[in-house]
Amino acid sequence: MRTPKQARLPFEVWALVAGGFTVALGYGVVAPAIPQFALEFDVSNFAASAIVSAFALMRLVSAPLAGWVVGRLGERRTYIIGILIVAVSTGAAALAGNYTQFVVLRGVGGIGSAMFTVAATALLIKVSPPSARGRVASVNAAGFLLGGLLGPVLGGAVAIFGLRAPFVFYFFTLLAAATVVAVALRRSVLADRSPRGSNDADETMTLGMALRVPQYRTLLLSVFAFGWSSFGVRVSVIPLLVAATFHGDATMAAWVLAAYAAGNAILIFPSGRWNDTLGRKPLLITGSVILAASYAVFPFAPELWVALAVMFVAGAGSALVNPGQQAVLADILAGRRGGSVVAGYSMTSDLGGVLGPLIAGAIVDLAGFGWAFGVTAALIGLAALAWALTPATRPPAASAASPS
How far is residue 308's CA from residue 20's CA, in Å, rounded to a whole number? Predict the structure, then answer.
């Protein structure tokens, strides 16, 4: 039986993907310069690294505010306001005269980032065709991945003009992203429509309602574990292990992380299609098991090439998990507004990203890398088990064909 031809995605999806790519590109340029710029103010290494924590902390604590703003102003306006807050704070950071100004401006940027992230996720869900939610999630993830890969490469050229230049570059990329979304979605019926009829109570899912849905509770556990491992341990503890085990420098650690990105890139598009045809649950379980196994064996890699191979496999597992999580969120909302529901999803992921490096780093100091990665693998494995025990959110085609 021939597979039906996939429908084209709405132009609103591509506008949001383009905006996300632009943001990721600019962030990839500025991220390496942030701690180095902080050191220009004659502060300690701890104070310099705290700049990154300040941004992440403000993202975390302001996520509920972002959900509230989405409910009051709508997704598109919140997206634009949030991204402009990041742009203005980033541009001002380029002119910072002391450490205090710099850390405050990065904190303000974290608030805008939370607004942008929650609004972008809610807006992407809103404009996604029900039968292509997995594809949309994978295309969006691919845009961020590509921007994140190209950003550091471009950042080397931008940094030639000084450590303030990357902030100026990011300022303009953020303005470009805001302009793209503002213009492209200005008269969009999909972006501005009310999801249901005329009753606001029927149009909105509150966080309390979502927490009574078993799939949402499992999703929060899953995104926490994913944030802990992929956004936290991967970028903080893995470089430490590379230095300790293989006596490698930052370049060697970058190659290991690049292997993860390569594995992610290989499967990110097929994963979206599989989520829409096979369902979310098989991909989430399989990807989580692959991720858990990869993190469990990584600290015992005897050679660098084995470590590279393990991270490549981990990246492939990540590609199976990431689109499925966003697709499940879209299935749960089912066309309803849910700024607080999306904020809870984003906040839980950020919490994993904040706690993962801190707790795993402490475990490394107390018991070694094996235990740190073992705890991380166990957490991901717990998420896989939870998905196995949770009823599936079926793809729309399957739902139409048979009762839930």
Answer: 28
